[in-house]
Automatic annotation (TrEMBL), chain A:
Protein's UniProt keywords contain Flavoprotein: no
GO molecular function: ATP binding; ATP hydrolysis activity
ABC transporter domain: residues covered: 2-238
Pfam families: ABC_tran
Identification of the protein by name: Phospholipid/cholesterol/gamma-HCH transport system ATP-binding protein
InterPro entries: AAA+_ATPase, ABC_transporter-like_ATP-bd, ABC_transporter-like_CS, P-loop_NTPase
Keywords of this entry: ATP-binding, Nucleotide-binding, Transport
Species this chain originates from: Alloprevotella rava
From TrEMBL, chain B:
UniProt name for this protein: ABC transporter permease
Species for this entry: Alloprevotella rava F0323
GO MF term (any one): phospholipid transporter activity
InterPro entries listed in its UniProt record: Permease_MalE
GO cellular component: ATP-binding cassette (ABC) transporter complex
Organism classification: Bacteria, Pseudomonadati, Bacteroidota, Bacteroidia, Bacteroidales
This protein's UniProt keywords: Membrane, Transmembrane, Transmembrane helix
Amino acid sequence: MIELQHLHKSFEDKNVLKDISTTFENGKTNLIIGQSGSGKTVLIKCTVGLFAPTKGDIIYDGRSFVNMKKKERALLRREMGMIFQSAALFDSMPVLENVMFPLDMFSDENYARRKKRAEYCLDLVKLLDSKAKYPEEISGGMQKRVAIARAIAMNPKYLFCDEPNSGLDPKTSLVIDELIHSITQESGMTTIINTHDMNSVMGIGEHILYIYKGHKEWEGTKDEIINSDNERLNSFVFASDLFRKVRNEMTESNK
Amino acid sequence: MLIQKFLTRFGRYIELMGRTFGRPDNWIMFGKQYLKEMAQLGVDSIGIVLLISFFIGAVICIQIKLNIQSAWMPLWVSGYVTREIMLLEFSSSIMCLILSGKVGSNIASELGTMRTTQQIDALDIMGVNSANYLILPKIIGLLTMMPFLVIFSTGSGILGAYCTAWIGHVITASDLTAGLQHDFESWFFWMGVIKSLFFAFIISSVSSFFGYTVEGGSIDVGKASTNAVVSSSMLILFSDLFLTRLLS
């Protein structure tokens, strides 16, 4: 479980995050949504420690991340996995070595076991056949799947995904969403996904946090979104005609 | 304002070096990176070092023979001057200036691209000390290879000088040999090696700093690459002045 407590973040005189408090529970797919520039990426970067919050705290299962010593923080980070918007694969290494990297770095297992674990993770994302290829030889969707395999290689307790569907076609986006969702449920990890893909919101959003201009505007589940009367949330989520139609049909069928 | 900017940047450089010079998270991974960097920064530079040194050695010999040497000078002067220039300045300082262009831009653009494509962030999230993992093998790798490059450069320059004798017949091989052997001071060789170690540190650490701290996109990576080459070249020139005075 990750708790954000009154989180603030400013860059010089610009307040990007304003008093954000929430709880991301274990085994749930938590989504952070919001328009571009609303502060989603800053929030996720503060949560993982890439940015230091100006005020507030982040609690990982009772452990304060802000007050942690450098060494403790490095150890906690080994319990984290992250999928970046750009996949961020190491382009000098083939796919298998990318997935093996965190294991090579921190695992005490021998080479055969590390390789077996990396191959298992690659099999999970159905990319075992591409293990000898380099990142530039595979498609964007495949790179994201390799990033998922790398992120889960160390069996993390916390998984962070920064816009995992950006730049992908709708079908591949669904595959990625389902993959992250099923891994989250099977492993019981705390997953936080940063997205503005409404298909993800309606498909896998068990806990959704809507950020508007740096503050928490709304929080709830995907079912609660349909009946929400928050105007800002509705104008963001149901911006397209298709989603408005779906919402109207669902509301009518509920009556 | 300029001094404040310099001090801020210098402070960030010191802070980065503090993170770089720590105990590696995994010695085997460090060893792999170290070997890779020795090959990439050192072995891959041998070709350009040999080529440039060969021609410079030949040109120095021809210039001295045709333009400086006169009837009242001993015949071995060209060989002697060629050796001294190669040992004292060219193979250590000028070769490092050339390498700051090749190696420095390579380091800065590699790290800069890793930063802009979030590969460094990925390392940090995993709990890896990214500065230590990426920069330390580059510094140690270049420090290891640089003395060899200096030796290769001197050897290649002397070979170039011999070619002016064998092929161009500008000087006789025996006069050249006499000049190369005349009044040899072995400290000059060690002076070149010591200077090159300082320069290797400047090239690798300064270029790593500019690459690692890139903010933005491809244009900023290009700027970082240019800044790395300009800054390390300036620092090499300044430190050459002090080191030459100190070691002579």
